[in-house]
Design brief:
The protein has 246 residues and is α+β, with helices and mostly antiparallel strands. The chain has one domain. Helices cover 34% and strands 28% of the residues. Helix 4 runs parallel beside helix 6. The chain starts with 6 loop residues before the first strand and ends in a 12-residue tail after the last helix.
C-alpha cells in the first residue's frame, strides 16, 4: 500500500469478564514511526465512541495518509476493523502541518482546565519530523479530552471529519451490495454532515459515490444525491471553516 514507512496493527482480543457473564473486546491501533520524513498522527480512543471506538489517522508531509479503525459494536454487533490508504488533499495536508507548527508541534499540555467538561474520548496528536531549525528531529505528543485552543480544535474537527467520511464510505459500500433501499437515507445524512462541516476528504469515497450515481437500477433520488455529492467533492469537497470539536 501507499504511505511507505508506516506500519499499523489492529490487535483484537477477548477478555473474559469476572463472574463469567460477558466477553469484552480489547483493541489497539499502533502507529510505527517511519525512518525518514515528517508525519502527523491523530488517535481517538473511547469505548462509547460512534461510529468508531478507536482509530488512528496518519499523514506524512507528501500527503500519503493511512486510516486504521475499530467500529462500534453497538452499530453492527461486531468490533470490526477497517483500514484504508489514501492521498490527502494538498489543502488539508498544508493546514495540518501549519497548525502543528503553530502549536509548537504539540509540545505542551493543551487540555482545558474547565470543570465538568463532558467526556468525549481520549484524543492524541503526534508530530514526528524536523523542527523549525530543520536540523534536529523532534517528536512530541499531547493527549486531551477537550482543548479550548482554536488550533487544536480545528485539528480535532478535521481528523474526526475524515474518520466520519470513511465510515460513510464503508457503510455505503455495504448497502450497495445488501441494502439498496436504505441507501438514500445514508446519502442524505452524508449531505447533512457535509453541510455542518463534519465531512472532509469526500474525494476519498468518490468510487462508491460514482458507482451509485452510474447505476440505472437504483432509485433516481439516490443517484441524484450521489451526483450532488460528487460535484461538491470535485469542487474541493473538504471545508476549511473552523467549528467546535464534538
Amino acid at each position: 500500500m501507499r504511505f511507505a514507512g508506516l506500519k499499523y496493527a489492529v490487535i483484537t482480543g477477548a477478555v473474559l469478564c469476572s463472574l463469567g457473564a460477558a466477553a469484552q473486546a480489547v483493541h489497539e491501533v499502533t502507529a510505527v514511526p517511519p525512518p525518514t520524513g515528517a508525519y502527523v498522527a491523530f488517535k481517538f480512543d473511547w469505548d462509547q465512541g460512534q461510529p468508531w471506538v478507536k482509530y488512528t489517522i496518519s499523514v506524512d508531509d507528501s500527503g500519503d495518509a493511512r486510516f486504521e479503525g475499530v467500529g462500534s459494536p453497538s452499530e453492527n454487533g461486531d468490533n470490526d476493523s477497517f483500514s484504508q490508504d489514501f492521498t490527502m488533499s494538498a489543502a488539508n495536508r498544508h493546514k495540518i502541518f501549519e497548525l502543528a507548527k503553530k502549536t509548537n508541534y504539540f509540545q505542551g499540555n493543551f487540555e482545558g482546565k474547565q470543570k465538568n467538561i463532558a467526556r468525549t474520548g481520549e484524543k492524541t496528536l503526534e508530530y514526528h519530523g524536523k523542527g523549525d531549525d530543520g536540523a534536529q528531529a523532534v517528536s512530541h505528543t499531547t493527549t486531551y479530552n477537550y482543548s479550548p485552543g482554536s488550533d487544536i480544535q480545528e485539528l480535532t474537527r478535521l481528523f474526526q471529519a475524515i474518520a466520519l467520511t470513511l465510515d460513510f464510505g464503508r457503510k455505503l459500500a455495504f448497502q450497495y451490495r445488501f441494502d439498496k433501499l436504505g441507501m438514500d437515507d445514508r446519502l442524505k445524512s452524508l449531505q447533512d454532515m457535509q453541510a455542518s462541516h463534519f465531512v472532509e476528504e469526500l474525494e476519498v469515497i468518490e468510487p462508491i459515490l460514482q458507482k451509485i450515481a452510474d447505476d440505472p437500477n437504483l432509485m433516481n433520488i439516490a443517484r441524484t444525491t450521489a451526483k450532488q455529492l460528487l460535484n461538491s467533492a470535485g469542487a474541493g469537497g473538504g471545508h476549511s471553516q473552523t467549528t467546535s470539536q464534538p
